[in-house]
Amino acid sequence: MASKRYKQLIEKIDTTKNYTTAEAAEVVKTLKSAKFDETVEIAMNLNVDPRHADQMVRGAIVLPHGTGKTVRVAVFAKGAKADEAKAAGADIVGTDDLVEQIQEGNFDFDVVVAAPDCMGLVGKIGRILGPKGLMPNPKTGTVTPDVATAVKNVKGGQVTFRVDKKGNIHAGIGKASFDAEKINDNIVAFVAAINKQKPASAKGRYIKNAALSLTMSPAVKFDLTELADIK
């Protein structure tokens, strides 16, 4: 049964309406009810079958206004690359010592970046990083010779996305404290990134459903026709 608070929030949404991105950004601001700065979350269902490799939708986008979240970054790099990563603001930089730390269960970071010549090391702990969604990948820009840019992107509000088995994508794209214009800018940038990844083999309507919500709020449904046109 829905709580009294939830019912009050639902009343602020026209559940028969599909909102434009700008309208959704305005409405979601009115749904704040928690004592903490809630995350603005976008959820989408895509008309793809990720069991086929050519329909796997994944990638990364640096949001224009960041996510509002402080992100700790661990980098596998050595020599000059290690120095570059530290200068760019990496929280932890290492090689074998970082492998040992992870094997011991210390995960004092949110994202892992790796220079290509360190991927052999990272492979040793793939079974640990993989299930936690921390495995570096070239498609999300986290395996790269340019570790400094990767660190700056992650710290600056990069969001990675990957469709699940049922075609769903979910991401935090801001905070309730952001103004509506910034939330809208981030929505548009995120949707454009998803549209850019549309597989050539995907038929019919690509974005089947999409909604915006806060951590503790009901969802606001998007106008899918508008989303399809965002490039």
Can you describe this structure?
The longest helix is centred in the last third of the chain and has 17 residues, at 180-196. This protein has helices at residues 4-10, 21-29, 79-87, 96-103, 119-124, 126-129, 147-155, 180-196, 224-228, and strands at residues 39-46, 58-62, 73-76, 92-94, 111-114, 158-162, 168-175, 207-214, 220-221. The model has no long low-confidence stretch (mean pLDDT 95). By secondary structure, the protein is of the alpha/beta class. It starts with a helix and ends with a helix.
Summary keywords:
alpha/beta, four-stranded antiparallel sheet, three-stranded parallel sheet, 20% strand
- How far is it from the N-terminal to the C-terminal residue, by CA? 40 Å
Q: What is the helix/strand order?
A: HHEEEHEHEHHHEEHEEH
Q: What is the number of E strands?
A: 9
What are the segments in which pLDDT stays under 50 over at least 5 consecutive residues? none
Rounded to an integer in angstroms, the radius of gyration calculated over CA atoms is 19 Å
Mean pLDDT: 95
